C-alpha cells in the first residue's frame, strides 16, 4: 500500500518569490515514481514534474524542481519566481512501477495562493 | 489542453438512479483510468482499463463499473447512486506500452451531484 501526506492545507507566497510545497510518502515498493500535479479551479489535473525512485538527480522542469530525499521519503516541490497564475491546488502522487496497473495514489493537496 | 475529453461536464442525479460518464482518450493512448475526487480531497483510483479489459481496481463497490471500446474511449457507470457519490470524476489516459513514467493526461472532469 502507498500513502502520500501533504501537511500544508494552504500556503501563501508573494509574487516573484519561491515557495516549497511539502510531500512525504510511504511505500513498500522497491521501484516507484513521484508526481506533482496542479489543479486549477477548472478541475483539470495538469502534470508538472516526475521523479523516479532510482533517479540520481533531482528533477527540474522550468520553474519547477523536485527536492527528492529518498532516505527521508520526501518529495517537496519548489516553485521559483511565483506567478499569479500559479494559484491553484497542488497534489503530490506516487505510482508503483512494479505492477501492471497505472494506479496513482494522491495526497490531500495544498492550496497555493500567490499574492500580488 | 491534453486531448482527453469528458462528457458531460456537469450532471445532477437523484439518489438510486444510474449514471454513465464518458471519456475520450488522447490519440495513441491505450489505457484509461478513472478517479473520484470528493470535495476538498485528492483523487482516488476507481479502476483502469487496458485494451478493453479491467486492469486494476481500487476500493470501490461493484456498482461502479466500466467499459473500454476498441477506439480506447471509456465509460464509467454507477448504479444505485448514493449521496456520497457526489464528486468530480476524472478520467486519465496514458500508454502502458511506454515507460511507466509517462504522465497520465487528465480530462477536465465530470462534476456529479446526487440529490
Task: Please provide a written account of the structure.
The complex is a heterodimer of chains A (116) and B (115). Chain A is built from no helices and twelve strands. Chain A has strands at 3-5, 10-14, 19-21, 24-26, 32-39, 46-52, 60-61, 64-69, 74-79, 88-96, 104-106, 110-115. Chain B has 115 residues and is mainly β. In chain B, a hairpin with a 6-residue loop joins strand 4 (31-37) and strand 5. The termini of chain B are far apart. The A-B interface holds A 4, 33, 35, 37, 42-47, 50, 52, 91, 93, 95, 97, 99-109 and B 2, 31, 33, 35, 40-45, 48, 50, 55-56, 58, 88, 90, 92, 94, 96, 100-101, 103-109, 111.
Overall shape of chain A: it is globular
Termini of chain A, distance in Å?
Answer: 41 Å
Described by its quaternary structure, the protein is: heterodimer
Protein structure class of chain A: mainly beta
Distance between the termini of chain B: 32 Å
Identify the notable features of this structure and list them briefly:
heterodimer; A: 116 residues; mainly beta; 0% helix; B: 115 residues; 7-stranded mixed beta sheet; 11 strands; 50% strand
Care to give the gist of this entry?
Chain A has no helices and 12 strands.
SSE inventory with pairings:
The complex is a heterodimer of chains A (116) and B (115).
Chain A: E1 3-5, E2 10-14, E3 19-21, E4 24-26, E5 32-39, E6 46-52, E7 60-61, E8 64-69, E9 74-79, E10 88-96, E11 104-106, E12 110-115
Parallel strand pairs in A: 2-12
Antiparallel strand pairs in A: 1-4, 3-9, 5-6, 5-10, 7-8, 8-9, 10-11, 10-12
Chain B: E1 5-7, E2 10-13, E3 19-24, E4 31-37, E5 44-50, E6 53-57, E7 64-68, E8 74-78, E9 87-94, E10 105-106, E11 110-114
Parallel strand pairs in B: 2-11
Antiparallel strand pairs in B: 1-3, 3-8, 4-5, 4-9, 5-6, 7-8, 9-10, 9-11
Amino acid at each position: 500500500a502507498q500513502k502520500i501526506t501533504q501537511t500544508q492545507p494552504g500556503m501563501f507566497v508573494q509574487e516573484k518569490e519561491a515557495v516549497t510545497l511539502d510531500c512525504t510518502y510511504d511505500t513498500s515498493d522497491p521501484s516507484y515514481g513521484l508526481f506533482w500535479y496542479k489543479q486549477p479551479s477548472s478541475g483539470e489535473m495538469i502534470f508538472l514534474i516526475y521523479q523516479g525512485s532510482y533517479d540520481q538527480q533531482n528533477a527540474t522542469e522550468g520553474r519547477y524542481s523536485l527536492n527528492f530525499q529518498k532516505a527521508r521519503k520526501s518529495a517537496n516541490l519548489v516553485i521559483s519566481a511565483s506567478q499569479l497564475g500559479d494559484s491553484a491546488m497542488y497534489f503530490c502522487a506516487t505510482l508503483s512501477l512494479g505492477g501492471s496497473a497505472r494506479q496513482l495514489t494522491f495526497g490531500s493537496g495544498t492550496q497555493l495562493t500567490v499574492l500580488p | 489542453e491534453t486531448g482527453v475529453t469528458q462528457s458531460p461536464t456537469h450532471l445532477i442525479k437523484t439518489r438510486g438512479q444510474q449514471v454513465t460518464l464518458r471519456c475520450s482518450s488522447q490519440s495513441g493512448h491505450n489505457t484509461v483510468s478513472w478517479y473520484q475526487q470528493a470535495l476538498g480531497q485528492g483523487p482516488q483510483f476507481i479502476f483502469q482499463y487496458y485494451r478493453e479489459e479491467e486492469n486494476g481496481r481500487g476500493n470501490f463497490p461493484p456498482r461502479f463499473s466500466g467499459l473500454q471500446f476498441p477506439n480506447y474511449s471509456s465509460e464509467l457507470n454507477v448504479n444505485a447512486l448514493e449521496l456520497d457519490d457526489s464528486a468530480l470524476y476524472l478520467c486519465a489516459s496514458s500508454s502502458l506500452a511506454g515507460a511507466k513514467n509517462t504522465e497520465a493526461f487528465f480530462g477536465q472532469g465530470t462534476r456529479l451531484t446526487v440529490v
